[in-house]
Amino acid sequence: MHRKILTALLMILPLCTYAQVGDHRSDLSIGGNAGYVLSNIGFDPKVSQSMHGGITAGLSIKYVCEKYFNTICSIYGEINYASMGWKQDIRTSRDEPVINANGAAEEYSRTLNYLQIPVFAHLAWGREQNGFNFFVQAGPQIGILLNETTAKNYETPNLSKDGTGRSNTIVEQESMPAQKKFDYGIAAGLGAEWSIRHLGHFLVEARYYYGLGNIYGNTKEDFFGKSNNSNIIVKATYLFDITKSKNNR
C-alpha cells in the first residue's frame, strides 16, 4: 500500500511539465521558510505521548508551469532542517504524574534532527500577482537523520505495580538510539499566498507529514513492529521571482 501511494504521488508531479493544455507559464521563484513542528512517533507497542515541539527552517523553490482555467499549477520543493521526535506522557493508572526516587515527576523526550526534502504538486486558485490565492499541495518527502539528543530527569523509570508507577510500561525506546537514518513518507498541506508585484510572495501553510518508514527495525526479531514519524507543521515562506513569463507580468 505504501508503495502504491508513493507511486501515485510521483506520477502527479510531472504532469504540469508534460500536460501543457492551458496557458503556459515559466515562473521560477526561490526563497526561505521557517516554522514550528509538532511531532510524535507511531510506536507499536504503544508508547503514551504528548506532542514534541521543535523548529524547522530551510530553502524553498517554486516553478509555476501552467494556468489551467482558474488553477495555477506548480512544482514546489524545499530543503529543510527539522527538529522532530517524541515526548512521553508519563502517568500512573490514576492519571497522575509518576514520581521518581528523586522526588520529581518523570519527564522524557527524544529530539531527532533531520535534513528533509519534500517535493510537491502545488495547485492554487486566485490572483497570480498583486493579490491573494489559496493553495493545496501534496507529494513525497525524504529525510536524513543528522543527530539525536535525549532529555530525562531520572536514572531508572518507576515501574512499580503499587499504583505509583507507570501505567504504560514500555521503556525499551528510552535506551535505544535510532537505528534507521533514512526516512520517507508523504506530506500534504493547505495555505494562502499573498503576492506583491516587484516585492515577492508571502506564504503561510499548515502541513501534515506521515512517515512510511521506521526509526527502529521492524522484523519479527525486533521489539517494535512500527516506529514511524508523523508531524504537523505551521510555517511561513518568502519567495522572490527569478524568472517570469511575459503573460504573467
Describe what you observe in this structure.
- The chain has helices at residues 2-12, 15-18, and strands spanning 23-44, 49-50, 52-68, 71-88, 108-126, 131-152, 182-196, 200-211, 226-243.
- By secondary structure, it is mainly β.
- The protein has an 8-stranded antiparallel barrel with strand order 1-3-4-5-6-7-8-9.
In short:
This protein has 249 residues and is mostly beta strands. The protein has two helices and nine strands; from the N terminus they run ααβββββββββ.
Query: Strand sequence of the main sheet, in spatial order?
Result: 1-3-4-5-6-7-8-9
Beta-strand percentage?
Answer: over 45%
Q: How large is the radius of gyration?
A: 22 Å
The topology string of helices and strands comes to: HHEEEEEEEEE
How many individual helices?
2
Uncertain spans: none
Major sheet, described briefly?
8 strands, antiparallel, barrel
Distance between the termini: 44 Å
- The mean pLDDT is 91
- The assigned structural class equals mainly beta
The helix content is under 10%
Number of strands: 9
Outline, from the CA principal axes? elongated
What tags apply to this protein structure?
single chain, 249 residues, mainly beta, 58% strand, elongated
